[in-house]
Amino acid sequence: MAARDDRAITAPSVIEVSRSGLLKNFRFFQRLTARSRSHVYPVVKANAYGHGMKLVVRALEGVAGGFAVHSVEEALQIAGETRKPVLIMGHIPDDTTIVENVLSRCDARFVVVEEETVQTLAKAAAALGRVVPIYVKLETGTNRLGLTMPGAARLARQIRRNDALRLRGFSTHFANIEDTTDHRYAERQFEQFTTMAREIAGGDRYELHSACSAAALLFPKTHQSFIRLGISLYGYWPSRETFVSFKTSDAFTPKSIEPVLRWRTNPVQIKHVDEGDHIGYGLSYQARTRMKIAVLPIGYADGYDRRLSNTSYVLIRGKRAPVCGRVCMNLIMVDVTHIKGVSLADDAILLGKSGGETLDADRIASLLGSISYEVLARLNPGIPRILVR
Ligand SMILES: *Cc1c(COP(=O)(O)O)cnc(C)c1O
To answer: Residues with beta carbon inside 6 Å of ligand 1?
Structure first.
């Protein structure tokens, strides 16, 4: 258990993360990938999709195959929490001091696409007398990070030639798994990936990794050396389409995965407004009858999007309390006219369960025309996170 975070007592809102829920979601993927003996690497970039990076690493240190982050900076943040491999999938600064620092503090492994990066890694490795593990990222059609042939082969040769570097394998990332039930593009990317890797490897054995949550759910063949498990570790289906496609699989059960995050606060004022009164900046809401309003101490500075003004709701005593007026920087006003006995002691749930009602990031995302990933990733890291049960 995490030590009690004192800020959790004084802060206006708190994010609770269920340890047993995280483990349950993790184990679902462990079972799913067991046949291929693939490891599961939780992806903890973006503050563990808003859940709290250190806290998630601590909760999963005992079971994870390794952890995946975007940046060296994130790797440094979790370095003190884990002895497992830390896969840096994105930004590597061309700065040997920074790279030496991360290498000396954790079992860092790098995904590279540039020769300059390889040179920086080589210098840092030589300075420390260490061998640096590297994956080359192959471009198979996402056209984000990655190298096509012959650049990929050239980079692999550059790595193999240097005794301070160790080419561990190859990775790629899918472009079109979440947004469709037609998986031909992903199938072609996978084909291309294995073909390119085989060609560069020339008979030597290397690790391969390509699967994100959606690929892990839908394509058992992408369970290679390990899977990079992001959104579904946190209990969300990558998309409606992924859910629909996975539903027909044998591995599916209705509660295979479930959200583990609960964001709660308490009202700071409860008051009445009269018929015809306006609520909030810009007078965007006018009361049609006498109303009871609860003022909650969270706002867009916390990651509660301003476009939720007059659109979303929170849960209080198991009932929906609609947001009235504009979302402010640190406050929102919600309608509790229909909820009996609301007091300052009541929990107001911004994400999570209350009584029989659930409000999840998919719901908020649909109100915003976005995806759960964005809603979660933008929860302000300054909000205290606590690990519960
Ligand atoms: C973020 C990320 C993942 C995780 O994707 P999910 O859809 O959240 O599972 C996997 N691989 C790479 C390269 C990523 O950037």
So the answer is: 43, 45, 89, 173, 212-214, 228-231, 238
Query: Which ligand 1 atom minimizes the distance to the CA of 49?
Result: 8
Q: Is 43 exposed, middle or buried (0-12, 13-18, 19+ CB in 10 A)?
A: buried
**Annotation says 54 is catalytic:** no
Asked, for residue 22, whether it belongs to a domain, the answer is no
Q: What string of DSSP letters covers 254-266?
A: TTSS---EEEEE-
In a domain, 23, yes or no: no
For residue 150, say if its preceding peptide bond is cis, omega within 30 degrees of 0.
yes
48: in domain: yes
Report yes or no on 28 lying in a domain. no
Total domains present in the chain = 2
Q: Are residues 332 and 239 in the same domain?
A: no
Task: Report, in angstroms and rounded to the nearest whole number, the Rg of the chain calculated over CA atoms.
Answer: 23
Of the pLDDT bands very low, low, confident and very high (cuts 50, 70, 90), residue 1 is very low
Q: Is 207 helix (H, G, I), strand (E, B) or coil?
A: strand
Tokens for 319?
């009932």
* Residue 384 belongs to domain with CATH number: 2.40.37.10
Tell me the percentage of the chain whose pLDDT exceeds 90: 93
- 336 CA from centroid of ligand 1 (Å): 39
Beta-sheet strands, E only, within the chain: 13-18, 39-42, 67-69, 85-88, 107-112, 132-137, 165-171, 207-209, 226-229, 261-265, 269-273, 278-279, 285-286, 291-296, 313-316, 319-322, 332-335, 348-354, 357-359, 385-388
State in Å: Cα 229 to ligand 1 middle: 7
Summary mean pLDDT of the chain: 96
- DSSP secondary structure string for all residues of 268-322: SEEEEE-TT-EESGGG-EE-SS-EEEEEES--GGGT--GGGTTT-EEEETTEEEE
Catalytic residue among 45, 135, 304, 313: 45
Give all strands (DSSP E) within 183-247, no chain letters. 207-209, 226-229
Based on the residue annotation, tell me whether 84 is a catalytic residue of this protein: no
Whether 130 and 267 map to the same domain: the answer is no
| HSE of 322, CA atoms in CB hemisphere, 13 A | 11
Locate 90 and state its tokens. Answer: 């994105």
pLDDT at 20: 98
Nearest-atom number in ligand 1 for the CA of 89 is: 13
Q: Which domain holds residue 375?
A: 261-388
Please name which of 133, 135, 143 lies closest in space to residue 174, comparing C-alpha atoms: 143
